[in-house]
Amino acid sequence: MKRPTSGEPWTLLIPKNTGVGGVVGGGQGARGLLNHAVLGYVVNPSNPPPTPPITLAGTPLLFTTDRDGVLVNGVRVVGKEYKFSDGVVYILESPLPIVEATNNNNNKNNKNASPTQTPTQPETSTVTTTRVPPLTHRFSRFKSSRGGGDVRRPDPNTRSSRLASRPVLQPVLGDEPLTLAEADGFQETEFPGETVAGSGSGAPFEELEGSAVPPVREDQPFLQSFLSYMEEGTADEGAEFLHHFKNANITHRFRGTGRYTALVPSDAAFYSYYPIDWGFNPFLVQNFTRDVLADHFIRGNINLADLPSLAELTTLGGKTIKFTRKRNKLLANGVEVTLESEVPLSRGRVYTINQLLFVDNDRVFELQAQYGDLETAPLLGNPWPASQFLSHLLGWTEEEPRTSHFAEYLNLTNLAYLVPGHDENLDPLKYTAFIPTDEAVRGYLYADAPDPFLLDMTLRNHLVLGHLVPGRLYNTHLTSGTTLTSLDNTTLIVTHDKDGEVLVGGARVLGKQTFLYNLGNVFLIDHILGITDQDILKTINKYPSQPFSGSIQEGEKGTIFPQVDAPEPVPAPTTLPPQRPTTTTTTRPTLPHQPLTFPPTPTTSTTTTPPPPSPTSPRIRFETRTEISISRRVNDGALEPLDNSS
Fold this sequence. Notes:
The chain contains 15 helices and 22 strands.
């Protein structure tokens, strides 16, 4: 081939001012300028030469047209042309890429070939040495003609010619590529003017245009390329997304030959839903997390910069994302897509967004009500820091109007050392509480007799421990025949009656479980477990000093609130002399329902008595307690004092 000289016809392709930096910069230098000059041709885009002209940098030029105008290697020609006597100048929207295309056989046979040009039959190449400017990289790979010789380009102006010579077809959307068909000519992904499925409005858009990024090899699945990119740490955002993606196990939804576009939320998007110290983390719900992650992958390798307004695309999870434009910004369901963050991958690409899709506070509140057992409990400093379950159970029973009696008994106990929050390996321990209602407790109390659970600490501890079971149980666990063991070693057998009601130790379970944060669950029952009427009678008769008439025998149970006869009316005297008020003494003192208090230890220092609280001073419900284990559990649930000598 004769080396071209300055006297030959020429064609200049000059980028606009906004794209000049990509020609002289980016490592291209003078070669980038030569890549926009052609000698030997005055190219007419509407009737290009049969053999694609080659720039002085060795890049073959492919001219195509669509309804919006002329494209050269995918870069749009803008403005009007400037003709001269021996050449022509065209203005481009952005710079042309430099394509490395070599043919060793032709170079050997043609010693006079120009060092700046490459043969017209380039070999297939999927790797480039420079960053490719916008609207170009789908034309940067060419396929050799099987018959050898010059590579011919059919007339792009006729639809029949394009269909007849259609080369290898790589679809934009879908999980699998279409059937491959080779023909003489260049490899092309998409023809201008064709509508891409899934674009919503039906307007055509180019699938691989508009990104100043290099072409990538497509010799590996998208998922492998995506994970490699995220794990390399080159992404500024996406650490939280990658963390949840690895734990969600949704890789089976991706096909090896499928093409996908990922919208990766920023780390701050996840942080906005994380609890700080305690609270509900929605991403602990596995099904929810899997669906959210899948809905951030779009089926198809889509260039979002070219999407028409109101386009709708389908996610991997089956939901629809509606894209709109507002003030030159692309919004996906109202969330801004950072187009500048585009990174091409094998069989796809990835973008960054600043919020999560399909997640809002209303959805999180619904999950919290449904999965309250995943909510982290706030740390309570009293009454029992070593047993967060008991501390929160006390607060729950006090707020529940049907469990005031059990709350009073629990408040008088000191059993935190038997209900720890962690085992020896610091693994958290969970519990289940079966709480009798107030009506069930009243059925065990006698008229004109003190409350035995307030009188005797052993009976009270037996009551509390007998209603606590190790492990967190749900309704599904209460199957007929299941055997449970309470903390005082009482065996509880689960049965079902003819109506399908669940009974635990003979007590009917009232409704479903209530989540006590992530510490355990609570059930309401209509009967007291592990305590008989004989236990109640023994306790009452053990305290004869308590004011009530005679001893109580089994079967003498009366109402908890005995009837009191109204006093006969006494006529008031006409005159009353001044008298000092007298204190009326009843035959039965008030029951000791308040926590026991102990006198302070005498000290040598002089202390002053604090002033009484004002009516507006807050009430302190609990006292500071020192928990010292001086007893141990035995098989029957009683507490046996330890021998100090041992």
